[in-house]
User: Fold these one by one.
Assistant:
Number 1:
Amino acid sequence: MILTRIILAVHACFFVLLQDAFNWLFGERILMHADFAGKIGFSTDVTIHLDHKQLEGILSVPPEPKGLVLFVHGSGSSRFSPRNRQVAKALNKEGMATLLFDLLTPEEERVDTCTAQLRFDIDFLSKRVNQIAKWVQHHKSLCHLPVGYFGASTGAAAALASAAQNPKTVKAVVSRGGRPDLAGYLLERVECPSLFIVGQNDQEVLDLNKQAMGLLPEDTVKSLAIVPGATHLFEEPGTLESVSELAAGWFATYL
């Protein structure tokens, strides 16, 4: 009796491992094929391999996507940011594919937690975003989609810096409560349409956004949207919904 239970348990474990291996090897490819045939949408975890490092992400693709928005989170956040995920879900409903990803590996995150040396290193972060964009370009199921960036907090600076370095790839940028000023001289090279969303009651960040907008090239399409009653994190009722609507409209226009 005991031996029989052991054999059944081993068989069950083997089946689970076999199923996991199948999903890892073939699952994403099957989902991609189904979606881009215009039949269904999907959301799946992805592992992005970059120069002997790997980052984790969440890829969501609606049926017949109009574009792909990469979410560049701010310091101390991750692909699980509840605010970014809410905005991403709203974009999915408007026909935009989204990729939320960790900017740092677990080891880098541990170092940054102790030293804070990476969270404001816009050069490092923008290069990481460049790598993600390159990964998308080489992904046969995503490479045909126009790409936009949604950056929050310090991630907005990394998004703008990356956009400046990839003018042919990045078609639009949206900043939410961002610190675009941290992109420095690269602001003068941003060519894609850029929307800066700031809370009405986030005065310091509002001033910094106005200054940063003034550094963008004169012929670059740009706009400042001030959300009434909102503070830095857009925690007030209805304010994050306003961000989602503004972002969706911007990407629908320029992607």
Number 2:
Amino acid sequence: MMTFDSNRLLLAEAKDLRRSLTKRTAKDIISDKIAALIASGVLNIDDELPSERELATALDVSRETVRGAIQILAARGVIEVSQGARTRIISTDLSGFHVGVARHAVINSYDLETVHATRMLIERQVVSDAAEYITDEALERLRNSLAAQANCADDPVQFLICDREFHVTIYRACGNPLLADLVTDLYTYMMDYRRRVMARSGAIKKSYQEHVAIVEALERHDRAATLAAFGLHLDRIYTTTRSILSTSANASRKPARGAGGGDDA
């Protein structure tokens, strides 16, 4: 005999199945992508959302699609749209949005060495397969992403929005959606610290140059060159993330200065 809890579970599963069978529109997909940016820490509470034009360029969709996605997020209380002011993030309650296989707090609970080793193991296979299977359409999206990245050299948040779309496009090209989702979750590791890294002088330029090398290798469908270019990129992400984590740890261990002692720059 089925219990009340069993019935509730079945109803929940039926609801999820019905949702999965419903045709999702472009604005639904983009609202999920913006929600994922919030969940991962690219966008935080009280951050202003980039303009419709900037988001449309970064996500390679129309402004109308972005506008529809923003309306979905606003209707669910995630963002606030005010007349005459920039749209801003007001909530991180993202229930109902698809933001990844694993919760980002779970990913962030692992140490950097573990996550880097896992990325090197899984992501190398994913990008190697992407080099073989990537389509002309996906390559065009990557070229468009590079053009968008070139126009946000002084905006770390805008660059990271482009960066996520760039990486996910490559992951999806591997042909294995589960692996792509897993690697996307790993990509979000310590994203709040990545924001600080990208604010450093020259960081965006260096990342952009590495992206160019990756696209050039993918265009040739060259597995070895793609692995080499992506390996350099992952190693730099690891090194810079370790640096910022170390800096933050050292700062937190410093004793508070006495009155009149001033603050470190």
